[in-house]
């Protein structure tokens, strides 16, 4: 590629010659079972000022309808592969792909997720079925995410172990926020200003 | 005005700090902000019973990576290339700027959006792009405040920490129109309103700009994955929407395996913004979703740091800024006094190693500390900053008066008889010793009180009174 490559590699080799190697000890908590993971997840998501509803399987469709109505969201983007029972009556499909301007004009987006983390209140999307490409959950101002209880893991190490790095991943912990003004947290900057989560037991 | 060029020719730290501590508004802003973040960090760190073990693993993973950096960089290059990305190597700032400028020119675009990146500030990329006729738009809120205010960053995480809400409102009202959509007419200084103004100002730019430039928090050698942690969603906008993405990343940002992220995704958010997790983390491997992806690997002095047995631990740094937030010197002097994009305790050890200690400013940085050690305690990868500070102090060439004084002291302390003689002489002349020393020696007494000299030394008193019994 350039002379920089060989130069940098040579500098590194000269710099570390004779230095001892270091062994990595992983004495921290790794994979674990966490009773009450659903409750902890809901509590931690709510800490980020995102609305959370924990519902039974058969209440899911009605809860989605209520949530969308509460936001006045009619034109809602639906990624390919979203379960039909979660799909609102007038879905906006991303096929052919919507332009950024079109995404900016919809009322919101509804997705599933790949994994959720109880300890940190995090949802991870991997662009798989029911999630779609990354822009779908970025440009619309309202994101409704449905999480199944069996997708909730205890902590960060469990999530890292379940995810495929070859897929583009988006880890979401609450709505878009900033701490840039006097280090006070303010929700709502460039990403969706409203995040709502429905946890299906 | 960001970038190293802005800091060239700046006076040494003591003079910058002396001026900064006179600014009561600055001290108020810093005190308020660092107190807020210290409290938040302490509570989320205390939540994890295995923090010490995570910290140890973080240190070990980084040290192991640095020891085998050549091997892991080659592995990364192979993985990124296999996933459709292009890898470039830049030995210094000039080469990195040349590569990035060339890549932007090849797209035919004249504007780029940027995710907050320390590495691109370090190399002065915005200025280099400007000279090539390309406008770089900063999109992180604090970077936007710095760019609009024609200011310098003063904190690693929150570059505009020295500005309070009313100052930010004034900057937005005065400057936004020159850079794009003007600030709303009746803008208040409510942080919510200011964040909303930034959202409106940048919205159209995000949706239309074709080229983005980012840094990265981590690169995974095993998989070729890059990782960016952020809060606002400006990072996701830049990483997702443009057709071309160029990431400029220091070679020390590497981690060997995907699994290593399980450590750093716990250490970084809690140390940095004091949150259990930052709002958004994006990871991508090579060219995704039809995007063109270029990775520019940056040395720019890092291999020089790596060659120093004591100093190389500075390369573990994950740029969390916890050390700034706990530092009593930083809290009073602010970030600008350090004359570098890397301020605070980590800057005091990183800047002189990256740039060398030829300038008066860089030679003064290892002294910009009281060695209290709060930074070491707070550091999530256990960088012993005081140890490196002392090590670097040993390398600075000291002023002539100090060298002569130290040589004289060495001669006196070398023989007990000389010491006893000197003590007796000092005791006899003690009425003539001034409170402040004259000439170049004043540098010592400016910041220290001379101790009172006793009439008699302890040894003489002991011999005269037989240990106080006579």
From TrEMBL, chain A:
InterPro entries: FTHF_cligase-like_sf, LUD_dom, NagB/RpiA_transferase-like
Domain LUD: 103-200
Source organism, top-level taxon: Bacteria
Gene3D superfamilies with a match to the protein in the record: NagB/RpiA/CoA transferase-like (3.40.50.10420)
Protein name: LUD domain-containing protein
UniProtKB/TrEMBL annotation, chain B:
Domain spans labelled LUD: 75-287
Keywords: 4Fe-4S, Electron transport, Iron, Iron-sulfur, Metal-binding, Repeat, Transport
InterPro entries linked: 4Fe4S_Fe-S-bd, 4Fe4S_Fe_S_CS, FTHF_cligase-like_sf, Helical_ferredxn, LUD_dom, LutB/LldF, LutB_C, NagB/RpiA_transferase-like
Domain Lactate utilization protein B C-terminal residue range list: 395-464
4Fe-4S ferredoxin-type domain residues: 314-383
Keyword Electron transport belongs to the record: yes
Official protein name in the record: Iron-sulfur cluster-binding protein
Source taxonomy: Bacteria, Bacillati, Actinomycetota, Actinomycetes, Streptosporangiales
């Amino acid at each position: 590629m350039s002379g920089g490559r060989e130069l940098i590699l040579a500098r590194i080799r000269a710099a570390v010659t004779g230095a001892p190697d270091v062994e990595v000890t992983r004495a921290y908590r790794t994979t674990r079972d966490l009773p009450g993971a659903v409750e902890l997840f809901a509590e931690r998501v709510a800490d980020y000022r995102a609305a959370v509803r924990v519902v039974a399987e058969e209440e899911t469709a009605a809860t989605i309808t209520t949530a969308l109505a509460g936001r006045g969201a009619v034109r809602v983007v639906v990624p390919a592969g979203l379960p039909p029972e979660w799909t609102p009556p007038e879905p906006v499909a991303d096929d052919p792909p919507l332009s950024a301007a079109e995404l900016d004009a919809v009322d919101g987006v509804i997705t599933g997720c790949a994994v959720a983390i109880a300890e940190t209140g995090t949802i991870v999307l991997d662009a798989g079925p029911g999630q779609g490409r990354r822009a779908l959950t970025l440009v619309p101002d309202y994101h409704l995410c449905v999480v199944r209880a069996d997708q909730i893991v205890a902590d960060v190490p469990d999530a890292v172990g379940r995810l495929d790095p070859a897929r583009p991943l988006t880890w979401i912990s609450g709505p878009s926020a900033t701490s840039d003004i006097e280090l006070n947290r303010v929700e709502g900057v460039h990403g969706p200003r409203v995040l709502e989560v429905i946890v299906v037991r | 005005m960001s970038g190293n060029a802005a800091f060239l020719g700046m006076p040494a730290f003591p003079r910058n700090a002396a001026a900064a501590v006179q600014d009561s508004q600055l001290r108020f802003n810093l005190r308020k902000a660092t107190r807020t973040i210290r409290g938040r960090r302490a509570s989320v760190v205390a939540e994890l019973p295995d923090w010490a073990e995570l910290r140890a693993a973080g240190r070990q993973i980084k040290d192991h990576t640095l020891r085998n950096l050549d091997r892991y960089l080659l592995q990364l290059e192979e993985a990124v290339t296999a996933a459709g990305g292009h890898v470039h190597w830049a030995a210094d700032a000039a080469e990195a700027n040349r590569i990035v400028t060339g890549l932007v020119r090849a797209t035919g675009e004249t504007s780029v959006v940027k995710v907050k990146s320390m590495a691109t500030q370090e190399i002065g990329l915005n200025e280099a792009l400007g000279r090539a006729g390309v406008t770089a738009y900063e999109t992180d809120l604090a970077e936007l405040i710095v760019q609009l205010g024609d200011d310098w960053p003063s904190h690693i995480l929150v570059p505009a920490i020295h500005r309070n809400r009313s100052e930010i409102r004034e900057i937005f009202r005065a400057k936004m129109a020159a850079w794009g959509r003007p600030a709303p007419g009746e803008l208040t200084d409510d942080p919510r309103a200011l964040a909303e103004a930034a959202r409106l100002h940048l919205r159209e730019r995000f949706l239309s700009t074709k080229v983005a430039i980012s840094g990265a928090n981590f690169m995974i050698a095993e998989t070729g994955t890059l990782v960016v942690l952020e809060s606002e969603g400006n990072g996701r906008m830049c990483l997702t929407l443009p057709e071309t993405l160029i990431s400029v990343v220091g070679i020390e940002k590497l981690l060997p395996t995907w699994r290593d992220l399980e450590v750093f995704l716990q250490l970084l958010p809690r140390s940095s913004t004091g949150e259990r997790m930052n709002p958004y983390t994006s990871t991508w491997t090579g060219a995704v979703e039809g995007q063109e992806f270029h990775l520019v690997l940056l040395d720019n002095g890092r291999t020089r740091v790596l060659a120093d047995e004591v100093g190389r631990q500075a390369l573990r740094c994950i740029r969390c800024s916890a050390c700034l937030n706990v530092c009593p010197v930083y809290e009073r002097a602010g970030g600008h006094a350090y004359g570098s994009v890397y301020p605070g305790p980590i800057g005091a050890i990183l800047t002189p190693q990256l740039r060398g200690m030829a300038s008066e400013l860089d030679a003064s940085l290892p002294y910009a500390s009281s060695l209290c050690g709060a930074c070491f305690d707070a550091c999530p990868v256990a960088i012993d900053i005081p140890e490196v500070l002392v090590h670097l102090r040993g390398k600075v060439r000291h002023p002539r008066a100090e060298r002569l004084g130290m040589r004289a002291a060495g001669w006196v302390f070398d023989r007990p008889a000389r010491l006893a003689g000197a003590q007796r002489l000092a005791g006899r002349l003690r009425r003539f010793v001034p409170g402040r020393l004259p000439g170049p020696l004043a540098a010592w007494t400016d910041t220290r009180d001379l101790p009172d000299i006793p009439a008699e030394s302890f040894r003489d008193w002991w011999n005269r009174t037989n240990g106080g019994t006579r």
